[in-house]
Amino acid sequence: MNFADLGLHDDLLSALAALGYEEPTPIQAESTPPIVDGRDVLGQAATGTGKTAAFALPILDRLRRDDAARKRREPTALVLVPTRELAMQVSEAVHRYGKAFDTRVVPIYGGQPIFRQLEALERGVDVVVATPGRAIDHINRGTLPLNHIEIVVLDEADEMLDMGFAEDLEAILDATPTDRQTVLFSATMPPRIGGLARRHLSDPVNIRIEKPKVEPGEAPKVRQTAYVVPRSHKPAALGRILDVEAPEAAIVFCRTRVEVDELTETLNGRGYRAEALHGGLSQEQRDRVMSRVRSTTADLLIATDVAARGLDIDHLTHVVNYDVPAAPEAYVHRIGRVGRAGREGVAITLIEPRQHRLLTNIERTTKSKVLVEPVPSVDDLRARRIEMTTANLREALVDRDDLDRFRTVVDELGTEFHLADIAAAAVRLAHLAAAGDDDEQVEIPRVELGKPRKERPDRKPADRTSTRGPGDKGRADRSHDRGRGEHQRPEHRSERGRSRLHDKIVEEGFTRLFVGTGRRNGLRAGDLVGAICGETDLVGKQIGAIDITENFSLVEVPSAAADNVIRALRGTTIKGRKTSIRRERF
Ligand code: AMP
User: Are residues 347 and 489 in the same domain?
Assistant: First the structure.
């Protein structure tokens, strides 16, 4: 099925083409057409299956075709989501797909100052993406007008119920027009979801993507490993994993053409020999790519599922899922490319902390276990490189034929130096020539698979700061990368015991805080951002300059939040230690 078959407006098809989406995911193929037709839909789908686009595209389609709706100040669509992280993600997706016709989308969630949301609502909005608690606050204030709502989406409904939002959801749905369209997505379908659906959906189309049946013994012999990586660290993590795995030939699957092109460029820039393959290439270009891969001029083929269909590369040792595929079937197809003819193949999957459910689905479908491993550390990489150098030398020692002309060098140097020193220096030269210098390598943060911290209903703010799920670390790292550019990697700049920031004027509206831990305890800017975002309502991009010295750190936070940050961080640990924190003294 093509996107063109989904019944969407041409503007949306162009937006999808520009994003490099090649074909709808199963959940999109099944649920987008009925939503476009105005039917209520009850769909079972987890994060990472492409369900956001499945409902966002029909919403945008409706707006695109309705000038009056787009001129109205009041919203036409309301999307309810469990967490503020998801509110931001969904709202970014709606913005991305609907850019061509200036769709106005506002995320509304607890923790953000309400006046900012009021201003946005006041200016006029087409789509509101809200957490239930904050939506109720606005409804009670009369600042979220619902009389023009034509479509309500409940996204991750099971999570919203788990988080105690049941009453809020009922109240919100009751406050919207009865002739609205309602779409409910949930990763699981416990009886409570059935109840909610019976009360609020009318004659819904039920969508459940059937799991493919894999016959026992049919699954290929493949070592399957997943690495949990925050999105922003994926290119570096992939490079590290490839270095450690040293595949003979690998295919790396991405979801979109754009991602294929970007990743190919990044990997080539880092010294790998990568070729891109996607549906945007002509037959001639495709043939050229394939002949380079077959003649082993390229070690890595970066491809979309569509482009790689039907490819057969017999020396392939590794399949890498740069993104978890949206459906387990795709996973099965992808890894079926290695492990043929009794050889062991390797399947590697990069997974983001939130995507734990996709992995469970895959394990269930393939009836096999995917081992979750930490991304190799810099030390692991160094150890692996030394191992490879040792293996190369061992080979050279076995094949002694052509060592004689080098022995004269050893004899000559042997009059000045110890033999062991000469050998070590030669090993170093060989090692650097083969493996390169690893001084540039930076640690990739270790995160765990799991759900992100859940936002409590807004009316209980005290609950909000006390818990931190492992998924948060991923988000914090991402936020850090989006932080204000100038101070992205300041930890490399300061001298021992002295911070560059001491001499700088604090930016207006910011307060500089002193944190009593630094590089000596392994602290990095991402850890500080993670701790602050995890314990307060700030997000990464609100945090200002950071400087990490050997023994202490300085971080600039919005002045209005300074006391809160101090209070929140005093009660917690950073990198496993209790740490002093106060305003900077001069
Ligand atoms: P979601 O399950 O909605 O969180 O989507 C997961 C990821 O898949 C997002 O990064 C989307 O941009 C991407 N995505 C969604 N639909 C497609 C598609 N048809 N082709 C390629 N990528 C997609």
Answer: no
User: For position 359, which CATH number holds?
Assistant: 3.40.50.300
Residue 261 has which token pair? 């092109």
325 ligand 1 Cβ < 6 A: no
- Rounded to an integer, what distance in angstroms lies between the CA atom of residue 266 and that of residue 416? 45
- Domain around 255: 222-378
pTM of the model: 0.62
Tell me, using a 6 A CB cutoff, whether residue 354 lines ligand 1. no
Expressed in angstroms, the distance from the first to the final Cα of the chain is 65
Domain boundary among 149, 183, 208: 208
Q: What is the mean pLDDT of each run of 10 residues along the chain (586 residues)?
A: 92 95 94 97 89 97 94 96 89 94 93 86 96 94 95 95 92 96 93 94 90 53 89 90 88 95 91 91 89 85 88 85 89 81 82 87 86 87 86 82 85 93 92 70 74 42 32 33 32 43 71 85 83 82 82 86 86 78 75
Given the DSSP bridges, would you call strands 577-578 and 573-574 parallel, antiparallel or unpaired?
A: antiparallel
Q: In the sheet where 553-558 sits, what is the strand order?
A: 546-548, 553-558, 510-515, 581-583
Select from 554, 544, 550 the least CA-distant residue to 585: 554
Distance 70 CA to ligand 1 centre (A): 26
Read off the pLDDT of residues 86-126 as tens digits, 9 standing for 90 and up.
899 899 999 999 998 899 999 999 878 888 889 999 999 99
Which of 208, 232, 262 delimits the end of a domain?
A: 208
Q: What distance in Å separates the CA atoms of residue 54 and residue 33, rounded to the nearest whole number?
A: 9
**CB of residue 474 inside a 6 A radius of ligand 1:** no
Tokens of 478: 């991402």
Tell whether 204 and 312 lie within a shared domain.
no
411 sits in which H/E element: helix 404-414
C-beta separation of 189 from 216 below 8 A: no
CB 150 within 8 A of CB 76: yes
Instruction: Confirm or reject: Cβ of 32 under 6 Å from ligand 1.
Output: no
- Tally the domains of the chain: 3
26 lines ligand 1 (CB under 6 A): no
Both structure tokens of 570: 């005093």
> What's the 579 CA to ligand 1 centre distance in angstroms?
40
CA of 269 to the centre of ligand 1 (A): 26
Q: What is the pLDDT of residues 308-325, one digit of tens each?
A: 877 777 788 999 999 999
Closest residue by CA, ligand 1 atom 17 = 50
CA of 337 to the centre of ligand 1 (A): 23
| Residue 287: count of CB within 10 angstroms of its CB | 11
Closest atom of ligand 1 to CA, residue 89: 4
SS (H, E, C) 572-586: CEECCEECCEEECCC
Closest ligand 1 atom to 25 CA: 19
